[in-house]
Specification:
alpha+beta, 5-stranded antiparallel β-sheet
């Protein structure tokens, strides 16, 4: 009989995630929430600036959306999907693939007053600086 073993995210991964979100994302004006999750949608850590969004659901959606974006990239013969963004009336959501020793997905929720270029730069910094 097969039993499910709960997946435990190592403490050093959580601490590294907290450190990079605080250092790189927190100074970006207009960010409401920054979230690092596993590619299969489990939260690693989150930085809440101005949000009470349920991070469990956001983590699951981030993992699923990045998986779908990668499938679309493969379907059109592109190598991979690094980033997915979408705009709403209230702002922009950025999903960034984070490769390295512990692959992850970064989700940034920014308001309409945020400088999108600055948020995209921060996403890129997290993607290359989180447990390379």
């Amino acid at each position: 009989m097969k039993t499910n073993t709960p997946f435990v995210i190592p403490t050093h991964v959580i601490e590294a995630g907290q450190e990079i979100l605080t250092r790189v994302v927190a100074p970006v004006a207009g960010v409401h929430i920054a979230l690092l999750c596993t590619p299969d949608g489990f939260e690693i850590t989150a930085l809440r600036i101005r949000s009470e969004l349920p991070t469990e659901r956001l983590s699951a959606m981030a993992g699923s959306l990045m998986a779908m974006a990668k499938a679309v990239a493969n379907e059109i013969s592109h190598k991979d999907c690094r980033r997915l963004t979408f705009e709403t009336e209230s702002g922009t959501v950025v999903f960034q693939a984070v490769n390295g020793a512990f692959p992850a997905v970064l989700c940034l929720v920014v308001d309409q007053n945020a400088l999108l270029g600055r948020a995209l730069w921060a996403a890129g910094e997290v993607s290359t600086g989180f447990l390379p």
